[in-house]
Amino acid sequence: MSKEFRPWKIDEAQLLPPRVQDYVAQDHVSRLIVSLVRESLDLSAILGSYRSGLGQPPFDPRMMTALLLHGYASGIYSSRRIAKATVERADFMMIVAGAPPDFRTISEFRRRHLKALADLFVQVLKLAEKAGLVKLGQVALDGTKIKANASKHKAMSYDRMKKREAELEAEVDRWLKAAEAADAEEDKRYGDQRGDEMPDWVADKQKRLEKIREAKAALEAEANAAAEAERKARAEARRVAEGRKKSGKTPTKTGPDGKAQRNFTDPESRILKTEDGYIQGYNAQAAVDGAHQIIVAQTLTSSSSDQAQLAPLLDGIRANLGTNPDEVSADAGYCSAANLRTIKRRRIEGYIATGRQKHGTQSATAKKASRAGSLIARMSTKLKRAGYRSRYRLRKQIVEPVFGQIKQARGFRQFLLRGIDKVKAEWALICTAHNLVKLARAA
Question: Which bin fits 98, alpha (ψ -120 to 50), beta or left (φ > 0)?
Answer without folding.
Answer: left
